[in-house]
Design brief:
The complex is a heterodimer. By secondary structure, chain A is mostly beta strands. Chain A contains no helices and 11 strands. In chain A, 0% of the residues lie in helices and 50% in strands. In chain A, strands 2, 4, 5, 6, 9, 10 and 11 form a 7-stranded mixed beta sheet that branches. A 4-stranded antiparallel beta sheet of chain A has the order 1-3-8-7, with no helix packed on it. In chain B, a hairpin with a 5-residue loop joins strand 6 (61-64) and strand 7 (70-75). The chains are: A mainly beta, B mainly beta.
Chain lengths: 112, 112
C-alpha cells in the first residue's frame, strides 16, 4: 500500500532546540514538498525537492533546513532560528505530470 | 502560477447538493484544476482533477466552462462527514513539478 509516512505524529520542542521531522514515501515519486499550516490558515510552502540531492526554498524557508539524500526520504529540520515553530507540518509527494499530491498525515509541533 | 479565489465558508443541510465555485482568471493553457479536501489534523486528500468540460468520479463532479476562468466543485447529497475545508488549485501542467499554491480554501459545514 503506497503512501507517505510522517513521524512523529506529535512533537514537543524546547526553546533553542533543533528538531527533525521525518517524511518517507514508497510511491517512487520524484518531487517532495514540506508545507506548514497554522490554525484556520491554508498551507504555506517551506521547501521542495524535485530530484535527489537538489532542493529549493519555498515561501517561508527561514529557520528550516532539509536534505534529499535518497528518493524515498525528505526530512525537515526546524532550527532554533525559527521563532514561531508551533504549527502543523505536512509532507507531500507528487509524480511527474498533471497529477495530484499525496500527503502524509502530518506532524504537530509544539514549543514548550 | 494562477491565483484562485473561492468563498471562505459555506453552510449546507444534509442531503443537499453543494456547489463550490473557484475563479482563476489567469489560468494558463497547460494548467489543470485540482480540488482537495482536508479534515482537521489530517493532510489534504485529492478529490478530483480536470482540464475542461465536466469530470465526474465516485465522490464529486467538476464543471469547467469553455473559457476555463472558473470551475465548480459539486458534491451530491452531502452528509455530516463532508464537513471539511475544500481547496481549489490551478497548475500542475508543467513538467518541472512547480509547487502548487494552497489558499485558505472553503470551509464547508454540513448541518443535520
Amino acid at each position: 500500500d503506497g503512501g507517505i509516512t510522517q513521524s512523529p505524529k506529535y512533537l514537543f520542542r524546547k526553546e533553542g532546540q533543533n528538531v527533525t521531522l521525518s517524511c518517507e514515501q514508497n510511491l517512487n515519486h520524484d518531487a517532495m514538498y514540506w508545507y506548514r499550516q497554522d490554525p484556520g490558515q491554508g498551507l504555506r510552502l517551506i521547501y521542495y525537492s524535485q530530484i535527489v540531492n537538489d532542493f529549493q526554498k519555498g515561501d517561508i524557508a527561514e529557520g528550516y533546513s532539509v536534505s534529499r539524500e535518497k528518493k524515498e526520504s525528505f526530512p525537515l529540520t526546524v532550527t532554533s532560528a525559527q521563532k514561531n515553530p508551533t504549527a502543523f507540518y505536512l509532507c507531500a509527494a507528487r509524480d511527474r505530470g498533471p497529477y495530484g499530491y499525496t500527503f502524509g498525515s502530518g506532524t504537530r509541533l509544539t514549543v514548550v | 502560477l494562477a491565483k484562485t479565489t473561492q468563498p471562505i465558508s459555506m453552510d449546507s443541510y444534509e442531503g443537499q447538493e453543494v456547489n463550490i465555485t473557484c475563479s482563476h482568471n489567469n489560468i494558463a493553457t497547460n494548467d489543470y484544476i485540482t480540488w482537495y479536501q482536508q479534515f482537521p489534523s489530517q493532510g489534504p486528500r485529492f478529490i478530483i482533477q480536470g482540464y475542461k468540460t465536466k469530470v465526474t468520479n465516485e465522490v464529486a463532479s467538476l464543471f469547467i466552462p469553455a473559457d476555463r476562468k472558473s470551475s465548480t466543485l459539486s458534491l451530491p447529497r452531502v452528509s455530516l462527514s463532508d464537513t471539511a475545508v475544500y481547496y481549489c488549485l490551478v497548475g500542475a501542467g508543467d513538467p518541472g513539478n512547480t509547487p502548487l499554491v494552497f489558499g485558505k480554501g472553503t470551509r464547508l459545514s454540513v448541518i443535520a
